[in-house]
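Amino Acid Chain and Its Fold in Token Form
===========================================
Scope: a single protein chain, as residues and as a discrete description of its fold.
Amino acid sequence: labelled as such and written in the usual single-letter residue code.
Position: the record begins directly beneath this header, with no further notes in between.
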Amino acid sequence: MIKILDRYIGREFLKHFFFITAVFVLFFVIADFFDHADIFLRYHTPFLVILKYYGLSLPWYFYQTFLFTILVATLITFTIFSKNQEIMAMRVHGVNLWATVRPVFLLAVILSTLAFFDGEFLVPITQRQTAQIYSIQIKKEKKSEFYFGERKWLRWGNKIYNFQRVGADGKTIKGITIFIMNKNFYVTERIDALRATQISPQKWLLTDVMWRTFEKGKPIVTFRYPKRVFRFPNLSKVSKEAEKQTKQMSFTRLKDYIQKNRAQISEKTLNRYLVDLYSKLAYPFGGIIMVLVAIPFALKMGRWGGVSVSLGIAIGIGILYIILSSLFNSLGYAGLLNGFLAAWSVNIIFFLGGSLSFLSLPQ
């Protein structure tokens, strides 16, 4: 009987979970489409390109809506059970509370693991592909790629730029190398500078400059300058793109990036990276916490409020989670809280609150 009951509860939960996931993802797709509709029309984007763009965005939308989806699915499932007196029927037949909620907890563990692997493998790949589709196939921009690993790379015209560290405002650079190429992609000049500071939209002041020229059949010529003005693009986009891509990195890739570059990363940036790193674990496994929080609300309110009240509770819990998460993350970014605690504090608070509420229920 317990196995049949497990299957029934699990099936009802999954039915609500996948339906709500589909609704939320569809909502995000429609909202994003109308937000970018003017761009699609302006650049006459083919329908298949738009379809590919949103198809590759699905793993990201699933990841972003996961916590709220599992919260709503749990609330609705147990609200319906409670309202239909099914919980009471299970109690009458000797099924205790843990046996009732066990299938949903097990499914939450599985779904949280899938969400983690989605963020670890699918999201980084698909986000890079959607960014490329948007800039090259939709907006028809000239291919100029940013690479972020141990260093930052930018191609602009016939030059390739290599930066060790770009300031948060995009107006200062520490450690820069510029490769100038001819039409055959052969490097004709190389410029190395210790530091660069922006003095106008496309003019930069380079300090401690070593400028080398390369010609076939001739020796390398080297010039040294204490200061030199050079033209290259505004790098505020580079700085923003770097921050964006570190957020989209997988847990293992970001961890490796921090370990390799810890000595070169400023303390403020390191705090941000550590919070983002631990958040990549805290966020998906928050799904288990959401189940623990949702069940007591559903069992206590289900007989009186129904689905509409459950949705209201879900919105309230979701907003509270977002507010607390943003607060603790901000404290972590500012260095006022350890990176691990900044990422996990909201889960710990919700776990303690959910546990107390769960234990207060008749077992």
User: Anything to note?
Assistant: Residues 145-150 have pLDDT under 50 and may be disordered. The first strand starts at residue 146 and ends at 148. The chain has two domains: 2-140+278-359, 171-234. Residues 83 and 303 are 4 Å apart (CA to CA).
